Amino acid sequence: MLKNFIETSRKSAASWKLIVGLIITFFVVGIYLWGKFAAVIKSCETIQKQISQTKIKKDTTFPNEEVPSLDNQKGEWKIYRNERYGYEVKYPEGFEVMEAKPREGNKAVWGAKFLFGEEVQKVTFLEKEYELWPGEFQVCVYSNPDNLSLEQWIDKHEPQDVTGGSLIQDISDTILCGKPAKRLSIFGFDHEAIDIVSFHKGYFYSLRFTGSTPNDPHIEQHKQIYDQMVSSFTFVE
Predict the structure, then answer these.
(1) Cα torsion at 234, 184, 191, 114 (round to 10°)?
(2) pTM, entire model
(3) Where are the transmembrane segments (predicted)?
């Protein structure tokens, strides 16, 4: 009887020790987790405060901020002339001239720097000083190995989206240096691209530039520059 009582007392004591140990463990873990939670809350409050201060600073520091002027493009214009493919075009002195070269390797590259497919010559005129949305005008010359007509060439080189749908929004007739041409309005996701295409002495000539975009605060001035460049484009013997 006494032996059973002693054994029961030992088991009860062990149970109480286990319970007390669990309580202490839960208490310690709770304090640890609460500390972590409090640190996260404080960190979030700090980040939110920094964001708010940044917004206030931006709004109050530049209340009347204006985009840079394009007055530098009103100066002298230069002439780019390509004897081999028989054309010339005027461009603002504030634009740099970038000649494309044959592509090497299969790495992703900026299209203005290299020739692709049937392109035999390509030059890009890029505004140097204005970086937000610089003016860009490109002339590209294509070979015609299949002896295609202008309409057939456009069908062959029709830009498409990933589903195979056409990105051409409109095609209209126009004149380029006295020759029949097509003016293509192309959907460019964040802008409208314009491509004027004409055929001359065995080659297709493409003049490309931005037609409209909400990203360029100087789009109207750039459009005037592009129009002047198109008007100055001339086939030479």
Answers:
(1) -60
(2) 0.68
(3) 12-34
218-233, pLDDT tens digit by residue? 999 999 999 999 999 9
Domain count, the chain: 2
**CA gap 86, 209 in Å, rounded:** 21
30 and 125 part of one domain? no
Residue 142: how many other CB atoms lie within 10 Å: 20
AA identity, residue 88: E
Nearest residue to 134 via CA among 211, 50, 195, 218 = 218
SS3 of 53, please? helix
In the DSSP assignment, the letter for residue 112 is G
CA torsion 109→111→114→119, rounded to 10°?
A: 140
- Note whether 138 and 194 are within 8 A (CB): no
Single-letter amino acid code for the residue at 60: T
203-212 and 192-200 beta bridge pairing: antiparallel
Locus of tokens 């037609």: 211
Q: Do 123 and 46 reside in the same domain of the chain? A: no
The DSSP letter of residue 68 is P
Range of the domain at 156: 71-235
